[in-house]
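Researcher: I'm comparing several assemblies side by side, and this is the next one on my list. It has 708 residues spread over four chains. Same procedure as the others: predict the full complex and return the structure.
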Amino acid sequence: MTTSRTPAVGPDDEPSARTSPVTMRDVAQAAGVSVATVSHVVNDKPGARIGDAARDRVKQAIEELGYRPNALAQTLVKGNSKFIGLVADAIATTPFAGRIIQGAQDEAWKNGYVLLVANTDGNEGAEEEAISMMLEHKVRGILYSTWYHREASVPVALAETDAVLVDCFSDSAALPAVVPDERQGGRTATELLLTAGHKRVAFINTTTPSPAQAGRLAGYRDALAHAGAPFDESLVIDASPDQEGGYSAAAEVFAQGATAVFCHNDRVAMGFYDAARERNLRIPDDIAVVGFDDQEVISAHLRPPLTTVALPHYELGVAGVRTLLGLDSPTQVPRQLIACPPVPRRSVGAPADA
Amino acid sequence: MTTSRTPAVGPDDEPSARTSPVTMRDVAQAAGVSVATVSHVVNDKPGARIGDAARDRVKQAIEELGYRPNALAQTLVKGNSKFIGLVADAIATTPFAGRIIQGAQDEAWKNGYVLLVANTDGNEGAEEEAISMMLEHKVRGILYSTWYHREASVPVALAETDAVLVDCFSDSAALPAVVPDERQGGRTATELLLTAGHKRVAFINTTTPSPAQAGRLAGYRDALAHAGAPFDESLVIDASPDQEGGYSAAAEVFAQGATAVFCHNDRVAMGFYDAARERNLRIPDDIAVVGFDDQEVISAHLRPPLTTVALPHYELGVAGVRTLLGLDSPTQVPRQLIACPPVPRRSVGAPADA
DNA sequence: ATGAAAGCGCTAACAC
DNA sequence: GTGTTAGCGCTTTCAT
C-alpha cells in the first residue's frame, strides 16, 4: 500500500514524468550539449547564437524527455517570482468575491503572473499566516480584498511587500486602494429614473454607515441637483439592507407618493417587489424600481428583471493587479475609483402621468 | 519616475524589507554562527543539538533583521513544493465555484499547502497553459473542477502529475473524482415532502441530460419506493432548469393535483413561487415546495424561505484536496460521492388534508 | 555543539 | 557558437 505516496495516480508504470523529474541537465546530456546551451534555446535568448544543429537536437531532446523548466529554480536565480498573492476575507459568502478573484486572475495571467489565493474569513491570525506564507513564497505583491466596500485595518506584515487594497481602503496605512465609485453609482441609478421622466424618486437607503450608504446618497443628491429637481428629505427612507428592509420600507415609499424608487441594493429591491405585488401594483407600470449591486442571481431573475447598477468586482480585481504591477499611471491617488455601470433591464418605465 | 519599480509603495525610505531580502546568511553573520546552525534553529531540527546561547543569538538576529525563509529555495532543495493547483472553468459565473475554492483552500491550508488558482472559462488553450504553468511550478498535484456536475474531457497534461477531478468525472482518463451524490440528494429532497405527509409529490425535472437530471430522478423514485408510494409518471414534469421553467411547469403540477413539488433546482422553485402567488396559493399551506442546490441568495431570501437540498461545494473542495493528498482512504473508487444534505426552511408543511 | 561543503535546477557572465 | 563556472537561498551529510 503506497497509497500515501501516489494516491491519485493510476498504474505506477506510466510514461515517466511524475517519477522522474527531467532536468535541464538531462536534456543537455541527451542532446550532447551543455546546460547553458539548453538554457539559451529554452529561453530563446536574443543575443544567443546557437547553431541550428544544436538547437534542433536540444528541441528534440526536450520533446522526447518531456522536459519542463522548473519555475522555482528560475525564480531563485532571477530573484523575482511570478506570484501575486490575493488575500480575501470571504470568497464563498457571496458571488462577489469570486468576481474579484476572476478579474485579478485574468489580469495577472495576462501579465505572466499566477494568483496565490488565501481566504481568511476575516480572522486576524489566519490573515497574518497567509501573508507570511505569501511573503515566504516571495510574491511580487499582495492584493488585500474585502467582500464589501469598507475601511479595513490592514495587517502590518503587508508593509513588507507591495500591496494594494481592493474594495477597501485604509486611512492609516498609506496603501493604494481601488474601490467602487459609490457616488457615481448612486447618481447613475437615480438618473435611470429621472431620465425616464420620474419626478418623485424615493431612495431606500441602508441605516448601516458605510461608503455605500454615504456615497449612494450623495450620488442621489447629485442626480437630483443636476436635473434641477428638489431634494426632499422625506423621500429618503431608512431600511435594513436586505429583503425585509425593502419590504417594510415600501409602505413609506407609497405614502410619499413616489412613482419610482432607487433601492440601496438588489436584495432591498427584491423585498420591494414582494410588497408591490401584495398591493397589486405592477412594476414598472405603477412603480419603477432600480437596485444596486447587480447580484445577477437576483436581479436577472426577478419578474420583471431588475434594472440596476453593477458593482464592478471584476474590474476591481483587474485594477488591483494593474496598480500592483504599476501598469496604470495612477491618476487618482491614493484611492482609485472604479465606475459602477448601469444595467438596464425591465423594471423602469415612464411614470403613469407621463 | 521609478513608478514601474515600486508602484505600490509609499515613500521609498521605508524600514528595509522590500529593498533588502534578508537571507539566512545575513542572519548567520549577525548571530556569529554558520548558516547550518541557523537552518537548524529555524527548522527546529529534532536531532540538532544547538547550544542555548547560539540558539538565542540566532533567534534574536532573525527577529531584528525580520528574516523570512525563502520557501522557493526550500522547495528547490527538498524537491517537493507546497502548492496545489486548482483549475476551474468558471469561478465567477456562479457563487458555486467560490465555495469549491474555499473548501479546497481551507483544507490545503490546514495541511500546509497553498492554492494556485487558474480560471480558464473552459477555454482549452487557457487550460493547457494553466496546467503547464502549474507543472512548471512543481505543484504537488492539480484539482480540475467544473462549476456544475458533468463529464469532462480532461487535458492530457494532467497525467503528468497527481490530479483529481472535482464536481466532474471522466470515463476515459482514469482519474479519481469527487462528485455530489445526486441520487441521494434527490431522495432526500423527496423524503422531505413524503415525511411531511404528502402523497402526491410532483417533480419538476430539467430536460437537460446530466448527472443531476438522471440522479435526482433516480433519488425521487428511490424515496417513493422506500415509502411504498407508487411512481406516477405524470407527476414528473419536464421544464427548463430556470425560473421560467418553474413558472411554466406550475400549471401541470396543479393540474395533476399534487400537494407538494420537488423542483430540480432553486431557480425553478423561484419560478414556481411566482406561479403559485399568481394563483393566490400559499406556500407551504396550499402547496409544499423543495428546491435543490441551496443557492443561498435565492433560497434563504424567498418568501417563505425555501426548504432545499444543498450541493456540497465546500465539501467537494475539501474532499478534492484530501484525495489528492491521500488523506482519505479511498472507500469509493473511482468516483467518490459527497452527500447533499437537506436544508429545512419554511416551504414545507403538512398537506391540507392531513 | 557547530561548521564546511556539496548540491537542488537554473541563469548569466565570461572564456574559448 | 558553445562550454565553464559561479552563484540564487537553502538543507543536509559529515567532519571537527
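Model: For your comparison table: Residues 116 and 287 of chain A are 46 Å apart (CA to CA).
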